[in-house]
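Appendix B. Chain record.
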Amino acid sequence: MLKLLLCLKTFRLYIFLFAFFGFQAVMAQTGSIKGKIRSNDGSLLSSVTVSLVESGSKVLSTAQGTYEITGIKSGTYKVTAKFVGMNVQTQTVKVREGEASIADFILTDLDNMLDGVEISSSYRRFGKKESDQVAKLPLKNLENPQVYHIVPKEILQEQVIVTYNDVLKNVTGVSQGLVNGSNSFYMRGFENRSLLRNGIQDNKDNSIEVANIESIEVLKGPSATLFGNSLTSFGGLINRVTKKPFDLFKGEISYTIGGYDLNRITADVNTPLNKEKGLLLRTNVAYYDEGSYMDAGFTKRLFIAPSLLYQVNDRLSISFDAEIYQQRANDFHRLFPENSFTKTNTESLDLNWRRYYHGDDLTESKPSVSLFTELNYKISDFWKSQTVLSQTKYSNTGYRVWNMINKDSVNRSVRYSNSNYNTIEVQQNFTGDFKIAGHRNRLVIGLDYYTSRSNENLMFATPFDQFKLRGNDPKYVMISKQAVDAFFATVSPVRNIASQSTYSAYFSDVFNITPDFMAMASLRVDHFRSGGSYDVAADTTTGKYDQTKLSPKLGLVYQLIPEKVSLFGNYMNGFANNAPVIQPDGVRNAFKPSNANQWELGFKINLLEGKLNSTFSYYDIKVNDMVRLDPMRAGFSIQDGGQMSRGFESELIANFAKGFNVIAGYAHNNAYTINTDADIDGLRQWTGPADIANLWVNYAFQDKLLKGVSLGIGGNYNSKNYISQSRKNGEFYIPAYTVLNAVAGYDSKTFRLSFKLDNLMNKVYWGSYVNQMMPRRFSVNVAVKI
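Structure tokens predicted for this chain:
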């Protein structure tokens, strides 16, 4: 009955929306103004404010340097383009009904140094906060009631970043989980993985290459309403925006060499295949080869990412892109200390932290192919259609080792995998920007289909062997591929085939109650269907179930000072599906999804023509309906557990003077379980550090003699990070640490040279899987611009 009511409500919504499309189609014909914006060296400029003087309408240029102002009545208008630190330009444009008038801009630096080296504009773009993907709507940061952070490619270039972990160090309140370029992070007290690319799934297990990244978008809080529960966590989500083709021939070839056998070569080449017909190609390639600062271990990766754009006409564009990986590496080093509470932290273990317990020849091969197709169609001046298809296939072949401390010894366990995975997502969005009775509405309605299938072939050795935690135990070096294969020759494999699908419909509307007071209302309905897990050996399938869930989102924004200061509040929902449980008495209990509900208040500022950006917020997240073991009946499960997560976050991005830029952030989080186990309730567990701070300060010299030279320094602070706490057994934690990095560089029109020193003070510190992080490393990057 519930499913029927949900279907009827959804059907009524779509009847209304399609009727509304028809209403908009018969509205009075209008025209539009569009164009591209470049700097004097030909680079496309994003986040440029383009204004229609007569009406006050404003838009921001996209990452591809394009803009479009729609719904303009016939007449002659003045259009201005304005960007921080550059000369304002104005053009007079004539608009006709049903036509798109073209107005391109080339902005020059305020100093008008056309023949000089101008790199300061790239630093000003550190404060870029605009994105169509964050809300699936064209909302400015000050109009959005959700907290989010954007790391543009300019920061990756400035900091000579070669691993994905280092990108997220620039985001307030994010700490890393696994290390060595992995895909594991903590936000607001919850673990998170980076599973989205261009707003849609990219679910793979290999390390993420940064060569094809235009920007990283990090949304805070449970975001299942627009992005579903399969790709988000209760703490937020991470979306990678990839580089796109444009209509100029440009390229860059880069080489980085550094300590611990680091060698990395990248190439980024943009080639218009047929500029007149709108056929554009951009290709990014990277080869990565790195040793280890421990006594064994390496990573080798080849990455190819072609992207093709076909601008069919003024209304229709089609894009295709792919990311192809071939990776072979040793597994991440893992050391679990929970069974050794005689010691309370990593320092008291008194270990040789340079020891890599896995062996050099136990490797994993993780090839993957991600395909992405996007079709954008302009239905009218008020409505746009976006159709997106994404498929990711990857396999995992090889060995994974994890180590468990057992009193004064280490139990070393091994898993062998020969498994394949395939994930597909199809999404249809209709986006509208229109007025009803003089009130502006920005609306997205969408349909989403997500499906994944895994075919796993696994063998386990738990444990494989045991050796002494300290001292010179000969067993330490007795792990090898030959020895492990001999062990697995006596083990039967575990083979499982599993599948799941989610069918979703959603909408989100931002309604201007007044020009400065906006309300957001969003709702998603998800129907989740698990095909269960097929045990190949037993020829049985278990775990089939269906669940339907509504996920709402509400927000209010008031611009206290229009386009400068806004106050916001939000309510957001996330959820996690729970499989049915067969109890010891044979009763099958169907559990509902667990819910995460967030309330948040804060403010955002954008002052001094974009030179000062800041966000401050306080949030309260409560997770309900977690499944736990019944303390009163052994072996039974009940659904009444939960988790609390409260805290505040503050971010500052500032251009205090020409060439002088600062990125800073601080976050405090208090996370603990409730009603799960009396021994641990109220105690912080493995949820990341309670206090996190990040800082990056950069100065680009403005004197003619030193023009092009820049210096940067910054780092990260993580407070004490509990791995486990128990009233009965004690605690184990990773001590607090502060790590600094520094970069010096020179940038010209034809080349760029950078020198980087990671871990400037050679600080000894540990990651969340209890292994020493990278000591001091010096690296050099040289890039040639085509």
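Further analysis of this model is presented in Appendix C.
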